[in-house]
Write a structure and sequence with these properties.
Layout: H1 2-26, E1 37-42, E2 48-52, H2 65-77, E3 86-88, H3 91-94, E4 108-110, H4 111-121, H5 124-135, H6 138-151, H7 174-184, H8 191-194, E5 198-202, E6 208-212, H9 217-220, E7 224-232, E8 236-245, E9 248-257, H10 260-277, E10 278-284, E11 294-297, E12 303-304, E13 306-308, E14 312-317, E15 324-329, E16 333-335, E17 343-351, E18 354-363, H11 372-381
Parallel strand pairs: 11-16
Antiparallel strand pairs: 1-2, 1-9, 3-4, 5-6, 7-8, 8-9, 10-14, 11-12, 13-18, 15-17, 17-18
């Protein structure tokens, strides 16, 4: 009897061990949520932490505005438009339906306020107003959107309008949306808008519109500071969002969840998976000075100080460690006339002997060409 009891106990213990092993093995293969497709990347390393039908083409609804917003920020940085510039609202922009800022035709709104409408409440009217200002009309702006998508390697994306309103032939993928999200969040001023939860907005006329962020994770998920929602009958419920904890930034994209609640849950679950499973170690910070210098020909200085153009980090599963090696590809010398921020070379990042990332090495200072007087002074110093 005692022997039989021991045998039953042993079987129970063995069953528990086997069950635990199966759970451990299959954890990476768990499918999250009911969405058509999903994709999650750690931003600094570019490592893909989760993917599900990531290259399937679907409508992406208002997530189209990620690209629209990106082009606005890039236009601001190029000096083509200014944040405080006033835009007179056209009849076409004011007549847009769906999600709106409820802007008034003929009134003047700042680029700042229109951007706020696009990013916080997904305003179609504000989006078209910005598109018209940048490109003259929405069609020309859409051409710019498609050109920028190609430059980012978004080969499974086609934009037909600037808003994401239903339109035949418009599509993208979870992977491509993730790519443009990661490009957008490079712009620090974007977070001035994406972090807004609630705000009473006063129109030029004095009328008040309450703005409530469509991305509920801004309030309900620790570390989430950015994102764009979307919904149409074909796209269903979509979200591309980013969250940061302990230096690690995850970017997660979901297309085609069955409900608004499910899209937020799926993205939250994926964030939890990433933060709970992986450890992030910073190797180099964006702007950190590179130990190597490069000689400068015919310049006011003989060498140029270099810096890393972006963060370099190591991402491993918890309790694991990677051997990281940085290999530099730099010229022996460069000609003067280099402007701060210009690419000078590359840093190749290896983990355990495998190339995992390439990072630009940029000039950390501007080196002007030496004048006749500078050259004469150098010549004179050689005889001292």
């Amino acid at each position: 009897m005692r022997r039989k009891g021991f045998l039953i106990f042993a079987i129970l213990i063995l069953t528990f061990i086997l069950s635990f092993s199966l759970i451990s093995v299959s954890a990476e293969e768990v499918t999250y949520g009911s969405s058509f497709s999903a994709y999650m990347v750690e931003n600094a390393t570019g490592k893909v932490l989760y993917k599900k039908n990531e290259n399937e083409r679907h409508e992406i609804a208002s997530m189209v505005k990620i690209m629209s917003s990106l082009l606005v920020f890039e236009s601001i940085e190029k000096g083509e438009i200014k944040v405080d510039e006033k835009i007179t609202i056209s009849h076409n922009a004011a007549s847009m339906t769906g999600s709106e800022l409820f802007i008034d035709e003929g009134a003047e709104y700042s680029v700042h306020d229109l951007l706020k409408g696009v990013i916080v409440v997904s305003a179609n009217d504000a989006c078209v107003a910005l598109a018209e200002r940048i490109a003259g009309n929405e069609d020309s702006f859409v051409a710019m959107m498609n050109e920028r998508a190609k430059s980012l390697g978004m080969n499974d994306t086609l934009f037909v309008n600037a808003t994401g309103l239903p339109a035949e032939g418009q599509y993208s993928t979870a992977k491509d949306v993730n790519t443009m999200t990661r490009e957008l969040i490079k712009h620090e001023s974007y977070y001035d808008y994406s972090k807004i939860w609630l705000e009473d907005y006063a129109h030029p006329s004095g009328r008040i519109t309450q703005l409530a962020n469509t991305n509920k994770l801004i309030r309900h998920y620790e570390g989430c500071d950015s994102g764009k929602t979307g919904f149409t009958n074909n796209a269903l419920f979509c979200l591309s969002a980013s969250a940061s904890r302990n230096g690690m930034r995850l970017v997660t994209t979901v297309i085609g969840a069955k409900s608004s609640k499910e899209r937020f849950k799926e993205v939250s679950d994926l964030f939890n998976h990433g933060f709970n499973t992986y450890s992030y170690t910073a190797v180099k910070k964006k702007g950190e000075i590179v130990e190597n210098t490069v000689k400068v020909e015919r310049g006011k200085k003989k060498t140029i100080e270099l810096a890393f153009a972006e963060d370099i980090a190591s991402l491993t599963k918890k309790r694991e460690k990677a051997q990281v090696e940085l290999r530099y590809e730099l010229p022996d010398k460069i000609r003067a006339g280099v402007i701060k921020g210009d690419k000078v070379g590359e840093c190749h990042v290896y983990e355990n002997g495998e190339l995992v990332k390439k990072c630009d090495i940029i000039a950390n200072e501007t080196i002007e060409k030496a004048s006749w007087f500078d050259n004469f002074k150098d010549f004179s110093n050689n005889f001292k």
